[in-house]
Amino acid sequence: METNLLNCIKYLTNNINLFNVATNSFTNEEIKPFIELVFCYNLLPDSHLHNEEYRKINRYIRGVIQTGDFENKFIHNLNAISGICILEEFLLKNDESLFKGLLVDYIENKKIDLQLKRTPFRLMDMKYSINKAGVKDNLPSIFKIFEETILGKQLSPYYLTPMSIYSVTHTIFYMTDMERKSKYNHILLQNKEYFKILIYDSIIRNDLDILAELLLCCYFLKLNLNEDFASLIKLSIDFIKDSQDYDGSFPAPLDHNYFSKIKRFKERYHTTLVCMGALTWFEVN
Predict the structure, then answer these.
(1) Which of 44, 125, 228, 251 has the fewest CB within 10 Å, making it most exposed?
(2) What confidence score (pLDDT) does residue 75 get?
(3) Which of 23, 22, 24, 56 is nearest to 37 (CA)?
(4) Tally of domains within the chain
């Protein structure tokens, strides 16, 4: 395994217990780091998950799911629906299931997905997560939702906020099913120059978080096979590698370089997770 990636995974596994979920917590903010860990694990290529370093993450996730009382957390906070679906997707990848009955009751019977207000890309997020959990949603088609997203409306990349760019990257995540499907690629690939602009901009702004997500989009759309993009992707990966800190972590867009282990982790874990994803997909390709 390539050194930068190995050091990145070691940072996450050495600090894995900091993803802990408080037993009496029902808020999205408290559960968010753990759900993001599971989301990033789910997007990794299946071919790499046999590696022992990734299996350490797998074992930790399974342990937390078994003891975290997530069913009760969901009942107290129905807005956590996507998170529960992400956990069920993880379990299904491991030939297990825990939340299927709960999700069927709230989605197929009570149609809770129609009652929760979401922006277009968050609506797509919910639809995708529900389907990956093996449950039938009640929402419009993914293409109908796409038409209302920032990417679907082809808004200018020059005026997008970081949150708007997350809308772009996650729209691609869901419509490509993390590289597993190419049904919509001919539509998404109409925006190739769009991605170039955003990649260069994230490098200039030293935003590794967004850069890594954009690189994942390039892999999911197979732009790494495009001659024009191959050198840009290599440049971006080298930029990410050069930005890695001594402990294996990657700095957040607004980074304070905390000496406190916990503060440092809370600020850097998300960027480190998506950089792990980008470096893993680079190694695969």
Answers:
(1) 228
(2) 87
(3) 56
(4) 1
